[in-house]
Amino acid sequence: MSAPDSRFVRACKCLPVDRTPIWLMRQAGRYMAEYRAVRKQYSLIEICKKPEIAADVTITAAEILGVDAAIIFADLLLPLEVMGLPFYFSAGEGPVVEKPVRDAAAVSALRVNRAAELGYVAEAVRLVCKHFGSKLPVIGFCGAPFTLASYMIEGGGSRNYVHAKKLMYSSPAAWDELLGKLVAVTSAYAVEQARAGADVIQIFDSWVGCLSVEDYRTYVLPRTTNLVRAVQKAGVPVIYFGVDTASLLPSMKETGAEVIGIDWRTPVDLGWQSLGMKGGVQGNLDPVLLFADWEKVKAGASNVLARAGERQGHIFNLGHGILPETPVENVKALVKFVQEQPLK
Ligand code: CP3
User: Fold this and answer.
1) d(CA 104, CA 201)
2) Is position 75 annotated as part of the catalytic site?
3) 232 with 203: CB under 8 angstroms?
4) Half-sphere exposure (CA, 13 Å, Cβ side) for 178?
5) Residue among 7, 26, 102, 126 flagged as catalytic
6) What per-residue confidence (pLDDT) applies to 91?
7) Is 10 a residue of the active site?
8) What is the DSSP string of 186-230?
9) Which residues line ligand 1 (CB under 6 A)?
10) Ligand 1 atom closest to Cα of 25?
11) Which among 99, 243, 297, 309 would be 20 to 30 A from 215, CA to CA?
């Protein structure tokens, strides 16, 4: 841990803070000219694999915005490569896995003993922590087993997750082996980031909202709980985030994650109530609202803060990542505005 007494880390532990901390998912991204300039020289994967560049991208975004935490620049899919599944980013299409996993044989061929090859991410974390010291906390992250499995099986983004769900329903043993392997790799990877100085680990389960509550509980919750527990053993709080999760929130809380990320569809107070008011919550302004006039953005941010109220354990964020064309001035103004609102 680099900044254990920071507002952000304290809020993750539901300790009192003087104002609500704010950071933004995808705070380093194409909406920012400084990031686009780096991307002219390097591909996304090149940035991730060069710790000095990844650290610099992380630091630059956090400093330009003046947010209360820096999230390490990396990508969710990096662990696929060390498990034996190469992928690339195609312009317009997003990530593409060359040979998607479609059967039990492909699952058993996946490697679990090469997580150390992701050490470049921990190295970037180390550099960012060294830069900020105790001044700014650093967030490490990894993908949740369901979301990574769905990329591996679908081969990229998906609308209905037909291939992923087909494997889940028709080969439950292979499905569980796959999630177990993902937990082995991502837990080692996240623990390395924590050892390198990350203060908090966020687990992204971006696509879990396609599941019914029953299927989540049967096929996903046990393995995800294993991941959360393994990361917590490294001594850091966990933020567990998903999209379209209104009905899943109480089950997600059963993983034991200290903080649950809530997307913009569920008002923060109602989401928190569905968690039994236990632990912290993160969110949840609609990222598309940032395309509106500042007055609308401000009203939306005020609404999120009012709904969170004076309770301890709210971390302000968007309900999902910042989109590429977002006006950067609104993003900066949002951070400033949230930071000007005191908590009693
Ligand atoms: O938040 C941050 O600032 C840290 C950086 C970060 C990236 N990816 C860099 C990136 C984080 C936290 C991620 C996580 C990630 N990657 C997720 C989960 C988060 C979420 O939004 O739910 C997912 C699903 C991925 C996989 C992925 N990577 C997709 C679907 C894409 C978009 C492809 C496209 O062309 O838009 C990426 C690319 C990616 N990863 C970008 C960034 C900044 C886009 C910009 C670029 O190509 O340079």
Assistant:
1) 31
2) yes
3) no
4) 32
5) 26
6) 85
7) no
8) HHHHHHHHHHTT-SEEEEEETTGGGS-HHHIIIIIHHHHHHHHHH
9) 25-30, 39, 44, 71, 73, 75-77, 89, 94-95, 141, 204, 206, 320-321
10) 1
11) 99
Residues 126, 293: Cα–Cα separation, whole Å:
39
Q: Is 42 marked active-site?
A: no
pLDDT at 20: 98
In whole angstroms, give the CA distance from residue 42 to residue 19.
37
First-to-last alpha carbon distance for the chain, in angstroms, is 28
Cα(216)–Cα(55) distance, rounded to whole angstroms? 35
User: Ligand 1, atom 12: nearest CA belongs to which residue?
Assistant: 26
Residue 116 sits at φ, ψ, to 5 deg, of -60, -25
User: Tokens 């997600």, residue?
Assistant: 252
Residue whose C-alpha is closest to residue 78's, from 206, 197, 182, 227 = 182
Cβ atoms < 10 Å from Cβ of 156: 16
Is-catalytic flag, 39? yes
| Residues 185, 215, 175, 94, Cα dihedral to 10° | -60
Q: Is 56 designated active site?
A: no
- For the chain, percent of residues with pLDDT exceeding 90: 98
Q: Three-class SS of residue 135?
A: coil
pLDDT higher than threshold 90 for residue 200? yes
Catalytic residue among 39, 265, 307, 311: 39
Mutate to test the pocket of ligand 1, among 63, 71, 76, 203 (most ligand atoms within 8 A of CB): 76
* Parallel, antiparallel or unpaired: strands 87-90 and 94-97: antiparallel
337's CB contacts (< 8 A; 6+ apart) are 298, 301
Q: With contact defined as beta carbons under 8 Å apart, do 280 and 314 qualify?
A: yes
Residue type, 142: C
Ligand 1 atom nearest to CA at 143: 18
